[in-house]
């Protein structure tokens, strides 16, 4: 078996090799057997249990793991920024040959920013809302010994912002964080991280809160910039695809330990540890590629897909049809009379065939959730119609509309907001049955048990409360609740987006099984094209309230017609890697 | 083509490492824990509170005050006006008069015990009124929004602009009878604004939750959603504020009575006794100690309880 | 910023009218005829009573009376008290004293409240923090008049450090004790609020970012923790001005100060409607204006409000 590796996106490879020749034969950062504990009310919890990690000068390394794996904790320990009661209890961290564990406060302060920079995770909360962007970069310059007058610093700040890819930097520097979009804030944070030219940049999920196309642009830019400056980068990410694409060396963490580490592609192609295997198998971006390659080689998979596509094209009647659907919001301005009309959804048409999945894909602000809410009857369309089995919802009587509620049910994104925390699981799942007067109390309990079985949760779960369950479990409950009234259509609004990869894969499998078993139709709202590949039959790509491309999943992935769709596809982390096995 | 970074040979220390399978056991993804007893948010808050000594201290303090208020006879065989005689004026503490006697020769110990009733009654009644008025106005404003919200919020602003003790002074100087009920109603008439604002804020943040949207998608009526989902989830800040406010209202009543416009002089109350004792502040300041201490004890009980309840119910506080 | 200011001013008008109308209604709906009661047992001659009624517009319908009153407020022509002294003069006498008292109290509570709160918040869970927390609860539980009496007895009578009462034309020294009394409850509340807010901000993401930049601890605390913690404190001070105003009624009563509160209290015991409603209106007006100022300060501190 031969392996060919190609980089479809070669642009980043042209980054110039740094002029100065450094000694890069000895590690820049060397972590040995690092242990970190947190003290809680119930005792000590060891969050990191013996981690080894090596980063060479100018190299990019990624730590991959799910939430709670200890990846961020490890990274924060390097610059002594452990939260709360966190403490390094063993092992060593050497940086440029110098031991960092046990440094004095002032010594660490000298190190931060100047030697090691940080680009934090959430651009919304990592800038102080009360200071101008420029001030916050200026602070970093002053703290790290930038010599120069105020005017020189102002110029330098603008230069740094421009370097981070922010146009009109001098003016932007005088603005406040709330005047910036997420992507712009992330660029400002990159400017801060690189302000004093550190040798190592820790990038803690630097783009996970951003739209994929923005994410790609920023990561490309960061990659070019650090290559130019010769900065080593330590990526912290949950996304295996992203890690493999951006780093040459991968460290996979699970429950505070390194389960596998090594050259990025080798791990991706030939995972050895059970956990890494699961991770590779579940990563949506990688999964889609596998189907693609199988498709290309003309195996069974392709036949299956073709068969499937065939079916959807001919047999299934449409259960939901949206015609010329439009929603205009009136937005009140901050000053009197400053009303603006915002067209969230702009005359879109789509049809959801019975027993199939239609994915509405788009980035934030594309209008996909507004469209979903109109299908759910939660928002009144400004114009256009939503039809169920050929009947216009707007013309239905109140009674008919109430009856229709049983046929269309939603599952939302936020696993922490979708269940009433004051309701037991039983009450949550039973509520739709009680409201629609289905059966008596006894038969309803039977149905709740049945539903819990359906979503593969133990029946005893019904006596528990949402705060006792994980995100994935809550999402299962939300699905059980949505299924209680035996609906025909489920509107899944980013239903798996907030979940860890493995859990996400589980829920997607569950949804697939339920669809086959119950003949459900799914309207699947997502920003994540990679997931679409795993679940959807049809795709409608939305941008600025319009559907720009509407076709079968295969067509969209194999032969995208629109520039925007191609951008979206290219932005899927790991999309630039192609492994022909 | 430039050098491909993926084809470089691994550097020292960066070879392919795999942890031994027995070293890190890969668990079942997302298993439900079955060992612990089910626990709701409220039960968890209770568990949190019951571990704090301050909680039990404040509960004990409040219980003592309430028992004294209900049956002061348990602790004294006298009545507050019984055996008052000017001949006994300003006696020092003794076996017969634990705290001594006041100017009228009444037993201070007995009067202090009997004073609890007025304070507790006004505090409880005012809080009850305020919670009802404030919750209704705040919930309706926050939940239904639109012009209702505009009107109710303005109304709240107007009542808020008149400090409630000032309003109480003005009103109480008008009303003929100043029973505990009357004083409570007067305090409540301008005291409801904070709770209305708190409720409105809580309702606003709850009503955009996805579980509320899910109930809408089930076809549940707006009123039912407000009652079954929004209000129960807005309860925590209301409970916290009410506990603290109860203490505040007791202070307000005592203050007004001290100023001579609170409870009728015929009612035995701490504020009244303090007011009476004030005339001998230069000579016999100690007689004011007991009602003042009782008052502070009571208020402290409620304020401490409110503090503990806040820590237990506020998820932000709990994380810390 | 200008739009924000304009919007806030527009919101104040209905609040002012509503609040004064409420007060006016309350005072004038009181039973009994104040004019008839003026002459004591014998009463004034009917003609004199008529004249007084006409002078105070008491023969007009309620709403007209209210409009006359509003006009009076804005022209500083508030008529005379029943005893013949111009109400505006009474206000002019009382207001500076109360202002001085309130500003002293405000300074004491903010300086010490923020200082102690910051210190406790940065040392969360340590001895200083726990002690301060318990003591602050005690201070909140103590009614203003109790604190006042205790200080009078201890500092005034027993130690004889400060004058027991302030009297006419009080100076800073004689106002010190009343100011401390007035400030106690709010001091404890500001302390607790600052502490909570500091604890919250210390763990905020942007503070971590500031530390990661390499800022020294002092700068992180000053520019990121303290600065951001002031925002909720400022909001509280706005609300608290109401407490200061009503607290002044009690405090001025105890310390015998002829400020707004003291005058108001005297007027109530004499049933002097015009003075009551004027003094109450002054308090409400001061309260509303102060809240407006606090809102502006809030906007200065928090750019998100400024540009909203």
Automatic annotation (TrEMBL), chain A:
Predominant location of this chain? Answer: membrane
What InterPro entries does the annotation carry? AAA+_ATPase, ABC_Ni/Peptide_Import, ABC_transporter-like_ATP-bd, ABC_transporter-like_CS, Oligopep_ABC_C, P-loop_NTPase
Q: Which GO terms describe its biological process?
A: peptide transport
Record GO terms (molecular function): ATP binding; ATP hydrolysis activity
Q: Which residues form the ABC transporter domain?
A: 31-280, 320-569
Q: Which UniProt keywords apply?
A: ATP-binding, Cell membrane, Membrane, Nucleotide-binding, Transport
Q: Where is this region: Disordered?
A: 1-26
Cited SUPFAM superfamilies: P-loop containing nucleoside triphosphate hydrolases (SSF52540)
Membrane topology, from the record: Peripheral membrane protein
Q: Name one GO cellular component term.
A: plasma membrane
Cellular localization per UniProt: Cell membrane
Pfam family for this entry, one: oligo_HPY
| Biased composition range(s): Polar residues | 1-10
UniProt lists the family membership as follows: Belongs to the ABC transporter superfamily.
What's the protein name? Answer: ABC transporter ATP-binding protein
Species name: Promicromonospora citrea
TrEMBL record, chain B:
Tell me which UniProt keywords the record has, alphabetically: Cell membrane, Membrane, Transmembrane, Transmembrane helix, Transport
Give a single Pfam family match: BPD_transp_1
Which residue ranges run through the membrane?
53-75, 120-146, 158-175, 181-199, 238-261, 287-309
What cellular component terms from Gene Ontology apply here?
plasma membrane
Q: How does it sit in the membrane?
A: Multi-pass membrane protein
Q: Where in the cell is it found?
A: Cell membrane
ABC transmembrane type-1 domain spans which residues?
Answer: 116-306
The protein's matches in InterPro entries, at most eight in alphabetical order, are given as: BP-dependent_transpt_permease, MetI-like, MetI-like_sf, OppC_N
Which terms does the UniProt entry file under GO BP?
A: transmembrane transport
Enumerate the PROSITE patterns for this protein: ABC_TM1
Main localization category: membrane
Source species, domain of life: Bacteria
Recorded family membership: Belongs to the binding-protein-dependent transport system permease family.
**Per its record, how is this protein called by name?**
ABC transporter permease
Please give the organism. Promicromonospora citrea
TrEMBL record, chain C:
User: What residues form the membrane-spanning segments?
Assistant: 12-29, 97-120, 132-155, 175-193, 274-301
Q: Which InterPro entries match?
A: BPD_transp_1_N, MetI-like, MetI-like_sf
Q: Which GO terms describe its biological process?
A: transmembrane transport
Entry keywords, A to Z: Cell membrane, Membrane, Transmembrane, Transmembrane helix, Transport
How does this chain sit within the bilayer?
Multi-pass membrane protein
- Pfam families, per this entry? BPD_transp_1, BPD_transp_1_N
Q: Where is the ABC transmembrane type-1 domain?
A: 95-294
Give its localization: Cell membrane
Q: Which GO terms describe its cellular component?
A: plasma membrane
Q: Does the keyword Chloroplast apply?
A: no
Instruction: Write out the similarity annotation.
Output: Belongs to the binding-protein-dependent transport system permease family.
* Name of the protein in its database record: ABC transporter permease
